[in-house]
Specification:
seven-stranded antiparallel sheet; alpha+beta; six-stranded antiparallel sheet; about 30% helix
Length: about 375
């Protein structure tokens, strides 16, 4: 009976072909199901290992494609913190990158006024120090107790993240999770990091208009040099860095005898030893406490003679012990000598948060 049934099955017009199709479909479905299960296990493992396993899985998985095999690239981030990238290998597959890095200020090229206000005031920065400017989400976390393992004090760090996923609203939760883990692991102290602390990265501010007065130079007006220079034009350049701030202003007026360059600078913290070395001669002369001699010309040409005068002071400000220098350069020696004290007082008053001020003295260049 079975033979006759098999014979009828073989003679049927479409049943053998249909059976083969069903068998192929069943095998294919089984293979796809097994592969899907393998992919899910692989993706779960990759996500569990991302950034030390601190990422919120639900939020992270929403950034990625469910039907892609996720590849994890992880390891120590800049200067020993965290960095991980997770996503599909396809050209259009979503991915995300989360990085934690210490906030380190590169050293200044020098501490003289011209170095502090220069366009290239810092030594060259590593590429990773600017990577956060191109990220999508960012949080900077204070670390009052300091991050361990650095030669210089590191009292803050930043965590930033980037993604090409259309579901980028979930990225902030990843940044907050990594930031809180670094804060707790480093025993930073301070408040816990929350999702609401994370902000979108804004483009760097545009450079000030050429005629805008830098904040470091706001204390000065040409009228402070006397009525003869009231209403004179001025061009100013200023800058503020971690351990220093400075301004240089050139004042000129048609019909007036020569121009005047007024510079102001303050230094504090770890650059003070370098300042004392760089300006050692001036500080030694100023520290003698006597009145300066009638200045000798700093520069002489066939037409004009230029004098330079510096006034030094020290005080205790928000950044700790601070050195201040007011510099004057011009052709009118009597004007420089007459205005130096009042200009220094005006500059120190503008600092606002300084106390225990001591004027060290004047030094002609």
């Amino acid at each position: 009976m079975s033979d006759s049934a098999w014979a009828r099955f073989r003679r049927h017009r479409w049943l053998p072909q249909a059976t083969l199709v069903l068998l192929f479909v069943a095998l294919t479905a089984g293979f796809v199901l097994v592969r899907a299960e393998q992919r899910d296990r692989h993706n779960d493992d990759a996500l569990a290992r991302s950034c030390g396993g601190v990422l919120p899985r639900k939020d992270a998985s929403k950034l990625l494609a469910d039907d892609a095999w996720w590849t994890l690239r992880t390891g120590p981030g800049p200067r020993g913190l965290v960095s991980c990238t997770l996503g599909g290998d396809g050209e259009d597959d979503p991915w995300f990158t989360v990085t934690a890095e210490p906030v380190l200020d590169p050293p200044l090229k020098g501490v003289r006024v011209e170095h502090v206000i220069g366009r290239s005031a810092y030594e060259d920065e590593p590429d990773w120090a600017r990577e956060h400017q191109r990220a999508d989400q960012l949080v900077t976390v204070p670390c009052p107790n300091g991050l361990p393992g650095y030669a210089r004090p590191v009292t803050s760090f930043r965590v930033h993240a980037s993604t090409n996923s259309p579901a980028n609203e979930w990225l902030g939760a990843l940044v907050a999770a990594v930031a809180e883990d670094v804060r707790a692991d480093g025993r930073c102290g301070g408040a816990a990091v929350r999702d609401t602390d994370v902000r979108p990265v804004t483009p760097p501010p545009q450079e000030e208009a050429p005629d805008a007065l830098p904040a470091e130079c706001a204390w000065f007006r040409p009228a402070l040099l006397g009525s003869a220079l009231k209403g004179a034009g001025q061009s100013a350049h200023g800058a503020t860095h971690t351990w220093a701030e400075a301004c240089s202003t050139t004042v000129s007026k048609p019909g007036a005898a020569g121009g005047v360059v007024v510079s102001s600078a303050s230094w504090w913290g770890e650059v003070l030893p370098e300042v004392r070395t760089e300006y050692g001669r001036e500080l030694a002369l100023a520290g003698r406490g006597g009145q300066p001699t009638a200045g000798t010309p700093a520069k002489t040409t066939t037409r004009t003679t230029t004098y330079e005068l510096a006034v030094w002071a020290e005080s205790r400000c928000a950044g700790g012990r601070t050195l201040h220098r007011l510099g004057l350069e011009g052709t009118d020696r009597e004007l420089l000598a007459a205005r130096a004290d009042s200009l220094l007082a005006r500059y120190l008053d503008a600092s606002g948060d300084c106390r225990d001020t001591k004027v060290l003295g004047k030094v002609w260049g």
